[in-house]
Write a structure and sequence with these properties.
The complex is a heterodimer of chains A (309) and B (477). Chain A is built from 12 helices and 2 strands. By secondary structure, chain A is mainly α. Chain A has a two-stranded antiparallel ribbon with strand order 1-2. In chain A, a hairpin with a 2-residue loop joins β1 and β2. Chain A starts with a helix and ends in a 5-residue tail after the last helix. Chain B folds into 2 domains: 178 residues, Periplasmic binding protein-like II (D-Maltodextrin-Binding Protein, domain 2, 3-Layer(aba) Sandwich), CATH 3.40.190; 205 residues, D-Maltodextrin-Binding Protein, domain 2 (3-Layer(aba) Sandwich). Helices cover 43% and strands 12% of the residues of chain B. Chain B has a 7-stranded mixed β-sheet. A 4-stranded mixed β-sheet of chain B has the order 8-11-7-12. A two-stranded antiparallel ribbon of chain B has the order 9-10. The termini of chain B are far apart. The chains are: A mainly alpha (309), B alpha+beta (477). At the A-B interface, α1, β1 and β2 of A face α1, α3, α18 and α19 of B.
């Protein structure tokens, strides 16, 4: 009896160590996530900006900041900025995930035995190592009116006048999407590959023995078993996409040209910081937080609904 | 037991290391909610945040004194530093950011102006000026015209007369350089050692080809007002030249000649001359006589070379001396292929003003720097010869203008100063506002959409209003 009691107390003591080792995370989370989160929500209820060198506020204004944000019309409205962000994210994410799935399947396929896989994995990850701002600057120069892409197209006789890539909605958005895709497909490939290599090889072998084609193997075995990783990739990319900022900011000089059709929500938020308008920026952040939360829940619910495998 | 001790030790070490590291950071966010709590009950925030809440004039206890041992200078590039190093008597350089004048240490605080970083840094330091230790107070800082009033029209700058720089001292300076830094009560708050009158810089080859001659008189006759300018643009277009590289080239000329301010009584106001720029530019862009690229972009500077096929640029002395690729043998500047004439209207571009910060503990030294660099004709003539600056001293410049020994290679060996001297007299800057920088930038960006056909004028104007009210929430339209 006495022995047993001692045993349980031992367990409790080990639990205690577990909690102690969790302290760093909890403290960091509280200080750097929780407190800023609540102070942002709190700050969004005040009028608080700087007029030249004169501080205005903070004055309590309730939900007026939110009203102001939703009162915007035309190209300067919350739904437009949200749509801009989503369009550019989806346009980049769809090709990115397809490319990553294909590459991941090739690299992890034991029958294919891709040579120098390590080299290719490194190369496709490379674009991610370049700073987004440097990458955007590079594209800005490449696609400028007198840039190499335009002179190439003119010399090949495809166009006669330089095409202003950044002055047309479709081309400007496509550029942003393309850059995001290029920057992140390597990262996604590595993640998906890890997921694919985690799948029990005997399943693939069994399928081969049963005479399944590669396509069947991919759609009937790889994809369903990859679901948890896919959901993870999907949600992290969604959150990253909603927070899209650096690429379009640098590419369009912070203006979201043309006519703010490439201005994302964070770029709009950034606009408020010129006058240190913490009230409006706070309100914007709260809206962004809610959107991110809702979308993440939707994605999670949808993709975990059926568990038929 | 040993194991337990070890793990206890480890976790204590870990947690304490964590807390030590976070000591400062943890305190800061804690303080913020505490400070804001007090405002909960009322609209008026009366708490310890009031320190940086200097809504109005800092009180009169801002005594400027003379006993300081450190002179803190805030600026955005090396230009002023090199002027002080080369021309101020008694300045000794210690290292890249330090120097001495007598027994006073000079500390340079250089923040580039990209992305507003210079102003952000200056704002924070000025707002903390009253509580700063004597050696940390800003003594002297530099300003540009576009945002000068933001600082000049506050108590953070001292009138130069209080420092000991008299009206007689600045009598030879060009009037526009004084207009820029005169506050709403008429007090002069800063001085500049340079003037930046602009001229129309034209491509001689294009002038010969299209206008038949490349002398200044012929070209001036072809650009004497905006209607003639436009007519010439059409001729240039037929000959394969763009009149200007981009529509923004001419913006400064129009915006320097407005008859009303960007903001009147808290409302955004579009001056008739600004509208005239829009109309002219739209027609010229549609006709292919100019482009829509931004200033300083590759598409803009392509015209520095013959194959860029641009007829003219609007610019001051420093543009042609330092920015038009004169050191590249293939450029027009290196071949002496530019000419200059007054152009349709007078304007200025650039220039740096010196302001004394309220609360300085080196008042007489600040005054002496101002006097030596901006009022002493000997030093200023020295600056012209050594640095190719156009200095802010009317008699000195008028004398140089008739000096046959002074000439400029980029202009093919002529003395361009008479033109600059004529232009500088015409600059009228009585219509500056605190909001010029933001308004000018936003307006050009918004109108680009109109010129490129992405928006109607009204839509572009809405975009401009949106953009300005983001920057200045207090404005209406």
């Amino acid at each position: 009896m006495a022995k047993e009691k001692k045993k349980t107390s031992q367990v409790v003591k080990y639990n205690k160590w577990g909690y102690i080792f969790l302290i760093p995370f909890i403290v960091v989370y509280l200080v750097f996530q929780m407190i800023p989160l609540f102070s942002t929500i709190y700050n969004s209820l005040f009028e608080n900006y700087r007029q030249g060198l004169t501080q205005i506020g903070p004055n309590w204004v309730g939900l007026a900041n939110f009203q102001k944000i939703f009162a915007g019309t035309g190209n300067d409205s919350m739904p437009t900025y949200f749509l801009n962000t989503m369009i550019m994210w989806i346009a980049g994410f769809v090709p990115q995930i397809l490319l990553s799935l294909l590459l991941g399947a090739w690299f992890s396929d034991t029958r294919l035995r891709v040579k120098a896989a390590g080299f290719f994995k490194t190369v496709i990850y490379m674009p991610n190592l370049i700073m987004a701002s440097a990458f955007a600057m590079l594209f800005f120069s490449l696609f400028s009116d007198a840039g190499p892409i335009n002179s190439m197209l003119i010399q090949m006789g495809i166009i006669s006048q330089p095409f202003k890539f950044l002055s047309h909605t479709v081309s400007a958005r496509s550029l942003v999407a393309f850059m995001n895709c290029l920057m992140w497909f390597g990262n996604t490939t590595i993640l998906l590959m890890a997921g694919m290599m985690g799948i029990d090889n005997s399943l693939f072998e069994a399928a081969q023995v049963d005479g399944a084609t590669s396509t069947q193997v991919f759609f009937r075995i790889t994809l369903p078993l990859l679901k948890p990783i896919l959901i993870y990739v999907m949600i992290t990319s969604l959150i990253g996409g909603l927070q899209m900022f650096d690429v379009p900011q640098i590419l369009t000089n912070g203006e979201g040209n043309p006519m703010r059709t490439t201005m994302t929500m964070i770029m709009k938020l950034n606009k408020y910081l010129f006058s240190k308008d913490f009230g409006m920026a706070g309100a914007m952040s709260v809206i962004l937080f809610i959107i991110t939360g809702v979308l993440s829940v939707i994605v999670y619910k949808f993709s975990t609904k059926e568990t038929d495998y | 037991m040993k194991k337990k001790l070890l793990s206890a030790l480890l976790s204590v070490a870990m947690v304490s290391a964590l807390l030590v590291g976070c000591g400062d950071t943890a305190a800061a966010p804690e303080a913020a909610p505490a400070a804001t709590e007090a405002t909960d009950d009322a609209a008026a925030p009366a708490d310890d945040a009031a320190a940086d809440d200097t809504t109005a004039a800092p009180a009169g206890n801002w005594v400027s004194s003379d006993d300081g041992k450190t002179l803190n200078i805030y600026c955005w590039n090396e230009e002023f530093k090199s002027r002080l190093t080369d021309h101020y008597p008694g300045y000794t350089e210690v290292d890249a950011t330090h120097g001495t004048i007598g027994d006073v240490n000079v500390v340079w605080n250089i923040t580039p102006s990209d992305d507003n970083a210079y102003q952000n840094n200056l704002d924070e330091t000025l707002l903390g000026q009253m509580d700063a230790a004597a050696d940390d107070k800003i003594d002297l800082f530099l300003l540009e015209a576009d945002y000068a009033l933001k600082y000049v029209d506050t108590e953070y700058t001292i009138p130069v007369s209080e420092l000991g720089v008299t009206d007689a001292d600045v009598a030879d300076q060009y009037q526009y350089t004084k207009d820029v830094v005169t506050d709403s009560n008429g007090a002069l708050k800063g001085v500049s050692w340079q003037g930046c009158p602009g001229v129309l810089i034209y491509n001689r080859a294009a002038a010969t080809e299209v206008l038949g001659a490349d002398d200044a008189e012929t070209v001036q006759a072809a650009v004497k007002d905006w209607d003639t300018f436009k007519a010439t643009a059409a001729k240039m277009k037929d000959a394969g030249y763009k009149m200007t590289a981009t529509s923004n080239d001419a913006f400064r000329v129009f915006s320097n000649n407005v008859t009303s301010k960007w903001v009147e009584n808290g409302a955004i106001n579009i001056d008739a001359n600004i509208k005239a720029w829009v109309d002219m530019s739209k027609e010229m862009v549609d006709a292919g006589e100019t482009g829509t690229a931004d200033l300083w972009s590759d598409d803009w500077s392509a015209g520095f070379y013959p194959e860029g096929k641009v007829f003219c640029y609007f610019g001051p002395a420093w543009l042609i001396n330092f920015c038009m690729a004169a050191d590249d043998a293939a450029s027009i500047a290196a071949q002496g292929g530019w000419g200059a004439t007054e152009g349709p209207q007078g304007f200025f571009w650039g220039g740096t003003w010196i302001c004394g910060a309220n609360g300085t503990d080196n008042a007489s030294l600040v005054a002496d720097i101002m006097k030596q660099l901006t009022c002493n004709p000997d030093i200023m003539t020295e600056i012209v010869k050594a640095d190719d600056d156009f200095v802010n001293n009317k008699p000195a410049m008028d004398a140089m203008a008739v000096d046959a020994s002074y000439s400029s290679n980029v202009y093919g060996g002529i003395n361009p100063l008479p033109m600059y001297c004529a232009g500088v007299e015409k600059i009228d800057l009585s219509n500056l506002s605190n909001y010029d920088q933001g308004c000018n930038e936003s307006f050009q960006a918004a109108m680009k959409e109109y010129f490129e056909g992405n928006a109607t004028y009204e839509e572009a104007l809405d975009l401009f209003y949106t953009s300005v009210t983001e920057k200045y929430p207090e404005l209406t339209y």
